[in-house]
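Course assignment 3, question 2. Fill in each field.
Student: A.L.
Task: Predict the tertiary structure for the chain below.
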Amino acid sequence: MNLRELIDAWKKIFQIASKPDREEYMTLLKITLLGFMLIGLIAFVIRLIFYTTLFPFTG
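Answer field:
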C-alpha cells in the first residue's frame, strides 16, 4: 500500500465516521464505567483473598 492509497483510505474513514448522538454517547459511557467498576471489583476481591489467606498476620 503506497502513501496515496493510505491517504485515500483515511479520507474514506473520515467521511463515513460520524459524531455520536447524546443517547449513543451515554450508552458508551455507561458501558465504560461498568467495565471500570467490574475490573475494580475483581481487583478488590483478589486483593482481599490474598490479604486474608496469605498474609493474615501482617497489618
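Instructor remarks: The helical segments are 3-16, 22-53. The radius of gyration is 23 Å.
Grade: pending
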